[in-house]
Amino acid sequence: MPVRKKSFVQALPPAPPPRRTTSDVVSVRLAANENPLGPSPRALAALQAALNNIHRYPDASGTTLKYALAERFDVRPDQVMLGNGSDELIMLVCHALLGEGDEAVLAQGSFISYARRIQAQGAIARQVPLREMTHDLPAMVTAITPQTRLVFVCNPNNPTGTTVGAAELMRFLEQVPSDVLVIVDEAYREFVTRPDFPDLLPLVRAGQENLLVLRTFAKIHGLAGLRLGYAFGNPDLIAYLERVRPVFNVNTLAQIAGLAALDDAEHLERSLAHATASRTFLTTQLRAMGLTVIPGETNFVVVAVPDDTTVAAALAQRGVLVTPLSGWGLPGWMRVSFGTHTENEMFVAALREILRRSCR
Fold it and tell me: Is the bond leading into 156 cis (omega within 30 degrees of zero)?
């Protein structure tokens, strides 16, 4: 007799099996929104100094890093939670607040993990189509029912890179029922330049009970491989979520690297400058090919192509990895992360060749 499995977990897409590759094609990784400049030099130095102590368990509470984040962002330490990447925080929120038959509202064409984490709890993901590639917040309010427990807002949105402004988001927060938790995922906030981008920390400081703000060290800080995310929220909410957090979920090296990266302003400035230059370069080159581009406010651009899966496969054959968005509910679009300038040029040349061949 086979092991009895949960039907709603069984219905999730399976994880791809591990496959070794013997390909000699050099991969240009433009599919995961990583920082092509690498991690903070201060973080690297701190990691090297910490290696002799990795036989010790990490601080289970992440106390030093929590206090540093609290001081940097002017919140209380008990308003901070750490995660093994912000994806773990998403999973823990869903685990703590959703059950079979509950509902969560999110945008269709947003971070793919939200729907999967919702469905893994047997809950229903109410997906609201984007409007002009941006969250349709009025429609998301309308989608809330008495069964709704969570609402996810990704701002800036992954994978489109678009943002919603302060006035629109504040109006949305006022309309959401007080017993529905709003999770605002700000993984890319450091790249934003629009002057009216929402600052939600005053609401956190004031103790708003139905708001959780997610951020990460994976993107601009270049620590994706160490998996380190964090959240700001009401102390009672944080204490509740901590009940389902695995002990030692954030490893020693991640805590140490995060602490050092917080103080590396020069690396942050270099990363921002590179993102700005890459956005300008890629947007100019892609539009010169006659393609529609959403430049966004992140470390990637989104471009319309005739067939995203076919074009992405052709790019992969040339050693360039990008993300086709058909699987995210956005067919005909590709997300292209910023690489080094050389990598950006290699992508442009490969795409130009593919489009030229397809037009013959």
Answer: yes
